[in-house]
Amino acid sequence: MSDQYEDQSLCPIVHSTGLVGDRWSILIVRELLMGQGRFQDLQAQTGATSQMLSARLKRLEADGIVERQTYSEKPLRYEYRLTAKGLHLMPVILALRTWGERWVKPEGAPAAVRMFHRVCGSELELDGNCPVCRRLAPWTEMAGRPDEAWLTERKTRAETFTENLKKAACGARESDQ
Amino acid sequence: MSDQYEDQSLCPIVHSTGLVGDRWSILIVRELLMGQGRFQDLQAQTGATSQMLSARLKRLEADGIVERQTYSEKPLRYEYRLTAKGLHLMPVILALRTWGERWVKPEGAPAAVRMFHRVCGSELELDGNCPVCRRLAPWTEMAGRPDEAWLTERKTRAETFTENLKKAACGARESDQ
Lengths: 177, 177
What we know:
The structure is a homodimer. By secondary structure, chain A is an alpha+beta fold. In chain A, 54% of the residues lie in helices and 15% in strands. In chain A, strand 4 and strand 5 (135-136) form a beta hairpin. In chain A, helix 4 crosses helix 8.
């Protein structure tokens, strides 16, 4: 698709997918919404290579979706956070969640995250409807609670990633000798 | 990302973006939601090459999102339609629309599509809120009305596409001589 098409089109989908129309960007936004902002955590949880992740983060930063914040001066380390523009991608993530849970995931698998209505504390239905307030809850009134099974999956992924990093480092040292 | 990661993850975003985690698929779904189901129309409006479009449609069909229906026997011609699974991607498209209109499109550009609440006829706010019913309207209660400027953009795109096809056909005939 040419940039001209994108710049001149009135279609908001053309514009939004020009910025987050790929899987990695979506998975990065998912992680940042979960509060995972460090490079290695992002890499572990998305499964992206460091080159891929680095390129996507740079692009998301240039597009005003992500910002960097220093969390260590020596050594200099950043973590990534969503800007207001990035945070407003939450409804896109929620819509992908609803569809994925309902139409794609194997039957019987537990929901990764249960969503609750901050206003009344009830668990929301998959489409965001509150059974107590009898209305759709806006995303700003939602709070997510990850399922234990999903937390375990994430923990395992983080551990495997760290182990692999260590192995790679040992391999590099051995080949230096 | 390995298939193993995808198959085994509980995350619905991993599953949904495994099927529609690219821009072309999203733009195809947008067109099918607008009732454009013929190959050349899809090509004209998405800007995809015929190879790209063909590959994406095959994949969407294999994933149960799109189905083919014969509209001409001689010559044999199909048009594409969304299945129930595909139709339920509407909230994803709507969320990308809201974000694109609010955060990405140049200021002052008119909304491509105005959304109305079928229940009361009112125009919905950009986040889907009905100012009359004072609640978020579910997508199943929404009706879209494309803006004139966007219809003109689409018409121009269709005409340009047809002209280019004719030119290409003439070029091919000339080079045959």
